[in-house]
Each structure stands twice: as structure tokens, then as C-alpha cells.
Amino acid sequence: MTRTVNVASCTQRRDGQYMVAYKDARGTGYAVSEHPIPEGKDVRIRDGRVIQ
After folding, report:
1. Are strands 49-51 and 42-46 parallel, antiparallel or unpaired?
2. What is the DSSP string of the chain?
3. 28-40, pLDDT tens digit by residue?
4. Which of 2, 36, 38, 49 is 20 to 30 A distant from 16 in Cα terms?
């Protein structure tokens, strides 16, 4: 299932990918991204990954 969420923070991980904390109607969650994403941006996620 794909959802649109709002990025709360984005932190680089040791493996070079980025951990994105997001907020949506269900609360706070986390997803992985290959690219940094600015705070406040709306992104789509599916299966714990950011879809660009």
C-alpha cells in the first residue's frame, strides 16, 4: 500500500542511505530513502521505503 506522508526528519545511516521519520494520520513512522529529503516535504512511501 502506498501512502503520502510528511517528512519530520532525515538522518544519514552508516550504509549511506537515509532514515526518514514521517508523520501521517496514524502517527510517526520510519522509512528508508536513497536520497536526502528536506523536512516538511510530502513523499510517498511503500513497504518502508520512500518512492521518488
Report:
1. antiparallel
2. -EEEEEEEEEEE-TTS-EEEEEEETTEEEEEEESS---TT-EEEEETTEEE-
3. 999 999 999 999 9
4. 2
Q: How far apart are CA 22 and CA 4, in angstroms?
A: 10
Single pTM value for the model: 0.86
Could you give the angle at the alpha carbon of 30 between the alpha carbons of 27 and 31, nearest 5°?
A: 135
CA pair distance 35, 24, nearest whole angstrom: 20
Cell matching residue 28: 510517526
CA distances from 27 to 22, 35, 48 (A): 8, 23, 15
Domains of the chain: 2-50 (2.40.50)
